[in-house]
Amino acid sequence: MNVKDIYGQLPTIESKRLVMRKVTMNDAEDMFAYASNSDVSRFVTWEAHRSLCDTRDFIRFALQSYEDKKIAPWGIQYKESGKLIGTIDFVSWQVDHHRAEIGYVLAPEYWGNGLMTEAAKKIIEFGFDNMNLVRIQARCFVGNLGSEQVMQKAGMSFEGIIRKGMFVKGKHEDLKLYSIIKC
């Protein structure tokens, strides 16, 4: 199993309320709506998008990653509206160690409805069933209580705090580390 096996033809994954699929240029306005929000960018490594051009640049990056068969995000589409409301992906995958890390972002008007937990559970299931993973982890800034709740509700266990674990936006951040192990 390798990255090209999965990302050469990134599969569409469905849950009760969501479709996880490749992002397209048609998603630019939906993505910009949340990616330009400072509440969304507060707890991620990237700055809020300042223009639709920033969003289109990210989508071009994702499209190139799909083409190159590299790790790339799933867009999260809300079935009820057809809108792209976020992304989720394996931000890293250590094939030889059978472990990966997930990352995600969601439009704030959908926070608190269990949607990201629903997406995370499906991606975790996909990782265990299709990527030969034994361990899946996620990290969040210490102050990101919403992300921490997603990890907990997705079945992950708290492992500890990685002190000064990431230098982002000009400062060192402490990170909470969660993981789930395949039974």
Task: Draw up the topology in text.
Elements: H1 3-7, E1 13-14, E2 18-22, H2 28-35, H3 38-41, H4 52-67, E3 74-78, E4 84-94, E5 99-106, H5 115-130, E6 135-141, H6 145-153, E7 157-168, E8 171-181
Parallel strand pairs: 5-6
Antiparallel strand pairs: 1-2, 2-3, 3-4, 4-5, 6-8, 7-8
Quick take:
32% of the residues lie in helices and 33% in strands. With 183 residues, it is an alpha+beta fold.
Based on the model shown, name its key terms.
8 strands; 6 helices; alpha+beta; Aminopeptidase; 33% strand; 183 residues
Task: Describe the 3D structure.
This protein is of the alpha+beta class. The protein has 6 helices and 8 strands; from the N terminus they run H-E-E-H-H-H-E-E-E-H-E-H-E-E. It has helices spanning 3-7, 28-35, 38-41, 52-67, 115-130, 145-153; strands spanning 13-14, 18-22, 74-78, 84-94, 99-106, 135-141, 157-168, 171-181. Strand 3 (74-78) and strand 4 form a beta hairpin.
Q: Given this structure, which CATH class is correct?
A: Alpha Beta
Percentage of residues assigned to helices: 25-40%
CATH architecture verdict: 3-Layer(aba) Sandwich
**Beta-strand percent range:** 25-35%
Termini gap? 19 Å
Q: Number of helical runs?
A: 6
Radius of gyration: 16 Å
